[in-house]
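Much of what follows relies on a compact textual record of a protein's fold. With that in mind, consider the following protein and its fold in token form.
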Amino acid sequence: MNERLDRVRIEAAVRELLLAVGEDPDRPELERTPARVADSYVEFFAGIGVDATAIARSGAVHSEDGERGQLVVVRDVRFRSMCEHHLLPFTGVAHLAYAPGQQLIGLGTLSRVLDAVASRPQLQERLGEQVAEAVAEGLDAAGVLVVLDAIHQCVTARGERQSGSSTVTVAATGTLADAAGRAEAIALIGAGVGAAAGTGHDHAADHGADA
């Protein structure tokens, strides 16, 4: 649990917010709303103060010479985060690729890195950059690419209410920031699991797809 999170203050703030919009926080249907919001914020903001680079480093295993230079691609990792502009959720899928250096990473660890960085007030553009940087630094990877495809409630549920709209962002480091390396990784993401398996996906799983 995020030790910085003050449940009492959250509940008091939610109660005040209900009063501010003209509601009665004491009516039976709303009595437990402040506590429920505090419960949800424990999850939404659990990544505040968490070192995502340390998570990546903790899941690293040494790679053999023959494994270096391969491309590891993990597709369709679901995530959720909270838009820092409106405090409304955005949800979607992440596609993660990296070119190993001296180390590989357990595939479950990649998901934990993503979750740690997503569990704080965020912008989608910054989320992708921070995940890429954490994996690159934690593994000393030759290159990392993160593609995020997300639906933002601040777009779908307010303003113009573009319910069918999604946002795609790409962040990359090292060799995967180069045009050729980026194109190869994006092509594999689009090609599907079969293509990714031929370039190291299954091999990485053999080295600790930790849950």
